[in-house]
Design brief:
The chain has 204 residues and is of the alpha/beta class. It is built from seven helices and nine strands, in the order αββαβαβαββααβαββ. α2 packs parallel to α3. The structure holds S-adenosylmethionine.
Length: 204
């Protein structure tokens, strides 16, 4: 329906959407809350795989003091995100990047809603509008999460947080991956349907 209307509401803001991007989901608002609740004034926030730009724009709109960078490997998605940032007058630094490849900076927080659907999941075969690159996470859905977790430490200052959305059955493996990379203070949060969908960890 959002694709037919060409818009979707997220965090109280209206976002342009089309077949270049994932339609923002309500559970992803938890990522925005995690960032805006904890960030100190002026901190640098990185939104990886920004899609429509919903997370980056919502964060910047709620907390104009934060310096927000948003990336996507898809230039098509970045065009949509840039239009949404302009629409909401959100000053965001957009970078085309395969996860961290084009990023040299350190950040105070990294947030990502990466593709995490397993290749065998019937939902991928049934996609009519959404781009496969936004959802397909490899054989067990963890390819993108593993890539992000393994590279994030190098781009986080000590004490900074990594916030990841993941599938409802992926929390234990995401926690194990984060522990394996030396992250601490790992907390998993539940969405409104009580599914564990968001894990936050700190670099110590
Ligand atoms: C699940 S969508 C999330 C979009 C948006 N952040 C949201 O929450 O609605 C995942 C996004 O990651 C992007 N992506 C996929 N592979 C990527 C990669 N290797 N590097 C950067 N972004 C990637 C996709 O293009 C897509 O926009």
């Amino acid at each position: 329906m959002a694709y037919l209307i060409g818009e979707k509401e997220f965090f109280g803001l209206r976002f342009k959407v089309d077949n270049r991007v994932l339609v923002p989901r309500p559970e992803t608002e938890l990522l925005v809350e995690a960032i805006i609740d904890k960030a100190q004034p002026g901190e640098r926030v990185l939104d990886l795989g920004t899609g429509s730009g919903c997370i980056a724009v919502a964060v910047k709109t709620e907390r104009p003091d934060l310096r927000v960078t948003a990336t996507d490997v898809s230039t098509a998605a970045l065009a949509v995100a840039t239009a949404n940032a302009k629409r909401h007058k959100a000053d965001i630094d957009f970078v085309q990047s395969d996860w961290f490849d084009a990023l040299a900076k350190e950040f105070d927080a990294i947030v990502a809603n990466p593709p995490y659907v397993a290749d065998r999941d019937a939902a991928l075969g049934e996609l009519r509008f959404e781009p496969k690159i936004a959802l397909a996470g490899g054989q067990n859905g963890l390819d993108a999460i593993k890539a992000i977790v393994s590279q994030a430490r190098a781009h986080l200052r000590p004490g900074a947080q990594l916030c990841l959305e993941h599938g409802h059955d992926q929390a234990p493996i995401v926690v194990a991956l984060l522990r394996g990379q030396g992250f601490e203070r790992i907390v998993t949060k539940r969405d409104l349907a009580a599914h564990p969908r968001l894990t936050i960890a700190r670099k110590v």
